[in-house]
């Protein structure tokens, strides 16, 4: 059998059994001693059975660089990065010089292992052997540095490439996108085209996540049209990237159109669409699609599970939450620390703080995010002392708190009015952990001081805080001015906010509330006029309640519900009982200069009261009532709910935009401190 025939047989081998037969034939005919065929044979073994290839390779006397390259390449391709790097070092020790193929293979291994030190050493070899201007080698260096998180060196190498190809651009764009620099990724993508380089499929896959993260809809739509014009095939990855981009740009219908057109969907596609619905608050659509996915052969992954948990957290419905928890146990994901943490957060947001703590205590592994989630949960429910106790326990366990942990702790202190302990934690954060205060930390401290009525100190804190105060910081102080009806400071703070965040209607509403509470109707009119001039409309309050696996929503003065007559009748009945018990409507909250009687009627049609009345009609006596509101709890509704809880002898759990309120026997867990 001649060399050509033997080589042809080797190339036709597609499985290890056939290759073993050809190998035996070569041994019989003596062809195995031919260097060309020997190289071919080891190459085929490397592709089909790496261990056999290594066994043959180790028996060779002074293998050539091409064989070293084959082995390094296959180790890297099979995810055995350390073995690939080790083999490269052995090649150098054997006196064999690397060539322009050796470097891309070993640098790929360094990239997958995030082996930056080894990568830098190999970069030195690239220069020593004169391959620094080889575009293929340079591209591999850019990719390696970017994968190792060293964008500075990646960019340095990229800038030295005189004849960049599309791979060069893709490596740098992907590096920026993966290392939290989406704006730079988009800038490079545009620069690439201005330089006359047409993007390929990989370019699009690299840049679309940046469009998604920046919500850069215009750029994303241009890329979409480019793909259509260029006739580039919409594979699963590109389609999924477009789904993610449109969903994060709040264009859920566009995302769904792409999803529906996909001929084949993998778990990433399903997760992107379900996650898109969850991100945009379309809980029912997300769950509908999740149930639809279960009818297919596609099995959920961690991303899917986390998206669905997010949906149940949004719905704040304990019974469905328990169902998804059981489902997660059945598919074996409960032990994952990220899933466990997400479940803790879900139970917190469903108002089941005890269940959240039970799950937290049963977690076999906890990271700093898990501890922070539970601390934040206690804070949201007004359990400041419990949050602090858990924080101290965390430190005793040797888990170092991070920036987010301290935001959770300080927020918990703020919600519970623990001013002194909040200050102690703030000082400890700086002194003991070397964490510089962020605007989030400072906003919590302003909130602490402001709620305690120390408005001047809070304002002084803002003037002297290290980071530049943003709208969140000034907003915390304005909220405190509303609590204490302080017009003087409130006007001053509002002016800062109107400059920093002129489109946010919440600031105008807070100032208007301060004016209304003090009878300054001229001030209310002035705020209204300012909003009208800017074309701003207030965000409408909406309250949700889940009952019998269905979500019902209510807005103020809502009469669209099928049970509307019964709801208003129930409220009228409650009204008399509440007034007899001492309830007085807080008509100062009505931002209209109308009669007291009309103001009272307007208060009774608030969405929270409608939702509670609906629950009283349709749920069993004695069972807890759970509602969710998209805005901060109204002062009058808060007062009314305390009376209702005592009259009907039921616990009422209200989740507003800020925190949870547990109403029992005429009292609220917040202690009227929110």
TrEMBL record:
Pfam families per UniProt: DYW_deaminase (PF14432), E_motif (PF20431), Eplus_motif (PF20430), PPR (PF01535), PPR_2 (PF13041), PPR_3 (PF13812)
Domain (DYW) ranges: 582-674
Signal peptide: none
Tagged with keyword Repeat: yes
GO biological process: RNA modification
GO molecular function: RNA binding; zinc ion binding
Top-level taxon of the source organism: Eukaryota
InterPro entries recorded: DYW_dom (IPR032867), E2_motif (IPR046849), E_motif (IPR046848), PPR_At4g14850-like_plant (IPR046960), PPR_rpt (IPR002885), TPR-like_helical_dom_sf (IPR011990)
Name of the molecule in the record: DYW domain-containing protein
Keyword terms, alphabetized: Repeat
Species assigned in the record: Taxus chinensis (Chinese yew)
PROSITE patterns in alphabetical order: PPR (PS51375)
């Amino acid at each position: 059998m001649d060399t050509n025939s033997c080589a042809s047989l080797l190339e036709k081998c597609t499985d290890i059994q056939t290759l073993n037969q050809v190998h035996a034939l070569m041994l019989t005919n003596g062809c195995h001693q031919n260097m060309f065929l020997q190289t071919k044979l080891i190459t085929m073994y490397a592709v089909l059975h790496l261990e056999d290839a290594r066994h043959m390779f180790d028996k060779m006397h002074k293998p050539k660089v091409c064989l070293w390259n084959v082995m390094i390449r296959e180790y890297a391709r099979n995810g055995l990065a350390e073995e690939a790097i080790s083999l490269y070092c052995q090649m150098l020790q054997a006196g064999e010089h690397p060539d322009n193929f050796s470097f891309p293979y070993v640098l790929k291994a360094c990239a997958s292992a995030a082996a930056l030190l080894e990568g830098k050493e190999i970069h030195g070899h690239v220069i020593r052997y004169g391959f620094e201007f080889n575009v293929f080698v340079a591209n591999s260096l850019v990719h390696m540095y970017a994968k190792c998180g060293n964008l500075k060196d990646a960019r340095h190498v990229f800038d030295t490439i005189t004849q960049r190809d599309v791979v060069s651009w893709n490596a740098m764009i992907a590096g920026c996108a993966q290392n939290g620099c989406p704006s730079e990724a988009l800038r490079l993508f545009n620069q690439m085209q201005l330089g006359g380089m047409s993007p390929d499929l990989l370019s699009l896959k690299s840049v679309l996540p940046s469009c998604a993260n920046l919500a850069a809809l215009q750029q994303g739509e241009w890329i979409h049209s480019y793909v259509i014009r260029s006739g580039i095939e919409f594979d699963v990855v590109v389609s999924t990237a477009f789904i993610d981009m449109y969903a994060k740009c709040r264009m859920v219908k566009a995302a769904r159109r792409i999803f529906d057109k996909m001929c084949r969907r993998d778990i990433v596609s399903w997760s992107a669409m379900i996650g898109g619905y969850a991100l945009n608050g379309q809980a029912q659509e997300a769950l509908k699609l999740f149930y639809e996915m279960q009818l297919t052969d596609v099995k959920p992954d961690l991303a899917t599970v986390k998206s669905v948990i997010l949906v149940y957290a949004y719905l704040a419905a304990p019974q469905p939450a328990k169902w998804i928890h059981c489902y997660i146990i059945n598919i074996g994901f409960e032990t994952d620390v990220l899933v466990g943490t997400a479940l803790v957060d879900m139970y917190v947001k469903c108002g089941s703080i005890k269940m959240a703590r039970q799950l937290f205590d049963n977690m076999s592994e906890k990271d700093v995010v898990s501890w922070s989630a539970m601390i934040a949960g206690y804070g949201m429910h007004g359990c400041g002392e419990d949050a602090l106790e858990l924080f101290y326990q965390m430190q005793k366990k040797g888990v170092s708190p991070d920036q987010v942990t301290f935001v959770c702790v300080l927020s918990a202190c703020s919600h519970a009015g623990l001013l002194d302990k909040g200050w102690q934690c703030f000082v400890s954060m700086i002194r003991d952990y070397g964490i510089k205060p962020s605007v989030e930390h400072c906003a919590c401290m302003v909130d602490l001081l402001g709620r305690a009525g120390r408005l001047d100190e809070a304002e002084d804190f803002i003037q002297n805080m290290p980071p530049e105060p943003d709208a969140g910081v000034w907003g915390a102080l304005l909220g405190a001015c509303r609590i204490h009806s302080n017009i003087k400071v409130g006007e001053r703070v509002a002016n800062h906010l109107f400059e920093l965040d002129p489109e946010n209607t919440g600031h105008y509403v807070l100032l208007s509330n301060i004016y209304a509470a003090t009878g300054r109707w001229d001030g209310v009119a002035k705020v209204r006029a300012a909003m009208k001039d800017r074309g701003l409309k207030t965000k409408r309050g909406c309250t949700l309640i889940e009952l019998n696996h269905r979500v019902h929503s209510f807005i103020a003065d809502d009469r669209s519900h099928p049970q509307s007559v019964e709801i208003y009748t129930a409220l009228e009945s409650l009204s008399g009982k509440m007034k007899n018990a001492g309830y007085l409507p807080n008509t100062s909250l009505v931002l209209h200069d109308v009669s007291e009687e009309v103001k009272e009627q307007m208060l009774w049609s608030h969405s929270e009261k409608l939702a509670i009345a609906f629950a009283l009609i349709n749920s069993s006596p004695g069972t807890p009532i759970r509602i969710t509101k998209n805005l901060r709890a109204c002062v009058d509704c808060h007062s009314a709910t305390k009376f209702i809880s005592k009259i009907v002898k039921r616990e009422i759990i209200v989740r507003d935009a800020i925190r949870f309120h547990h109403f029992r026997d005429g009292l609220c867990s917040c202690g009227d401190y929110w």
